[in-house]
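Hi there, hope your week has been kind to you so far. Would you mind checking whether the tokens look sensible for this chain? I owe you a coffee for this, so here goes:
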Amino acid sequence: MDCKKFLIIIVSILITLFLAFVTIGHYYDNQEQLVLGTIEANAYTIKSPASGIVKDIYVKNGDIVKKNTVLFTITSNNHQYKVVSPKNGEIFDFILEKNNAAVKNGEYLNIYDYDKKWISFTIKPDLAKNIHIGDKIDMELAEYNGEPFETTIMQISMSTDNDNQAKENTYLPTVKVIAFINNDNEELRVGRRVITNLKKLKCIY
């Protein structure tokens, strides 16, 4: 085989390899970047205003309530106390029943503050390079069929993957992202999982 044919073969192989790498890179660049997150909110503990007997109960765990909704009443020394919700939110860890005895400042239920909910998710650093605080991103509930809802990225910070650290005794850098929910609805409850595609970010620049 003369040198000219040999060079032609080498050049052909190099061109083929180059085109293959370009095709593979283009394929991966266009893959969906799906990320799972969790709905979170601040929680508040509701305390009994006095010691007495629980007379009436108006809510149960999982109920969505408005601010100033009466949650339960306590009778003490012929006086009735109304315990109201300090926030719009969801009731959880409610342990009282009618005719139970309650003590002053006893902690008998909690409420998630639904005036401000957010999505928390972690991603690898290479996925974080194209997102910015203020970007808009649409998300969907992972376990339920519902309309996409819009969020705004409000926090981007480095964190550590503790699960992998425990298994391999190493620190793997990840990026924690917090995105506040813009258009809220009652299906978006704390603890539910959501999914998003980072390819569909609405960047502010």
